Amino acid sequence: MNPQQREQAERESDAADFHTVIPCATKSSIEAQFQDVYTHQKFREVQAQFRGKVNCITRLTNSALGYSVYEVGEQVSSSIFNKFVVTYDSVAAEVKCQCLLFESIGLLCHHALSVLSFEQVSQVSPRYIMERWSKKVKRRHTHIKSSHDEPLMEPRSKRFDQLVFCSQNICEFASELEELTAILHRAYDNVMAEMESLKGKRKGTSSLSHEDANLESVNELQSLPKIRTRGRPKNRLGSKLDKQIANATKKKKTKVLSEINLFDAASVVHSNSSQHQGHVMNYQFRVPAARDNSLGI
After folding, report:
1. What is the pLDDT of residue 195?
2. What Å distances lie between residue 232 and 37, 128, 228, 229, 239, CA to CA?
3. Domain named SWIM-type: which ranges (predicted)?
């Protein structure tokens, strides 16, 4: 599937998220909460955790001032149970599990969901609903395209998702108090300065080598040997027509020159004949004069 087809499929999936509904697997109001917010793809992952509650046995071990500690046994086979410690703070509406699934991928595990069901919690805190998986958020396809057009960009897309998730949790925690917000701002400034310094060093090294490569390429282009051209190729398109035009022009010039030569020759002959006739007339005019003089003697 090429990037265009992938993007079209995702657009169709986005449209399905708005116009269709996946039925809930349980009667839990928490599942209905995720059903209303999450995309179909992510809601199916949430449903898998709700189905996993069936294999969990929840037992309260300690409770004080709204803070409870539970032991959740997950049955993985007929005789094997894995035990997980889950804590629930009813005042902060916060649940934490030893498996750290939410801290890893942002999904509440079936151990935590089992404890919430035991505590009869009807709605989870907004901190457990990731906005980036909401069907109301228009997805940006830049990271999706880059991961398909260039396979090397896929790790960057994964790092981006992890950073977004971690930063969202940190921001939610820091926004509770002004002092925590100030600490986070100072940390951001220090981290940004360190990252810009490291990026600048790497960029300077890469840009220098890139510049040297460009200069070397320019020198190679400038040092290309000059090739002396031989003029128009003999088998050029239209050469036959050019020869015909040249021959016709040559014949026309020859004909004109012949006509000019004939004209000049005719003029010379005519001039000579006129002079010859003049001499004859003069001769004929003088003969009678000489004859009359002889008769008068």
Report:
1. 87
2. 74, 78, 12, 9, 10
3. 84-120
Contact 17, 135 (CB under 8 A): yes
Q: Tell whether pTM > 0.85.
A: no
Going by C-beta distance under 8 Å and a sequence separation of 6 or more, which residues neighbour residue 184?
170, 171, 174
Output the CA–CA distances (angstroms, integers) from residue 281 to 235, 272, 273, 288, in the order listed: 68, 14, 12, 12
pLDDT digits (tens, 9 = 90+) for 231-271: 555 555 555 666 777 777 776 666 655 655 555 555 544 54
Give bridge partners of residue 95 from the DSSP assignment. 88
Q: Read off the amino acid at residue 42.
A: K
CB-based contacts of 141, cutoff 8 Å, min separation 6: 7, 10
Nearest alpha-carbon partner for 53 in 35, 36, 70, 28: 28
First to last CA, the chain: 139
Cα Rg for the chain, rounded, in angstroms? 52
Coil, helix or strand at residue 159: helix
pLDDT digits over 90-103, tens only?
Answer: 999 999 999 999 99
Average pLDDT of 213-222? 46
Is the Cβ–Cβ distance between 214 and 222 less than 8 Å?
A: no
How do the domains of the chain map onto residue ranges?
3-133, 156-198
Contact between residue 141 and residue 4 where contact means Cβ atoms under 8 Å apart: no
Strand ranges across the sheet with 67-75:
56-64, 67-75, 81-89, 94-97
Chain segment 11-22, per-residue pLDDT in tens = 777 667 666 889
For the chain, percent of residues with pLDDT exceeding 90: 34
Q: How many angstroms separate the CA atoms of 105 and 133, rounded?
A: 12
Which positions ≥6 away from 139 have C-beta within 8 Å? 10, 14
Is the separation of the CB atoms in 111 and 56 below 8 Å?
A: yes
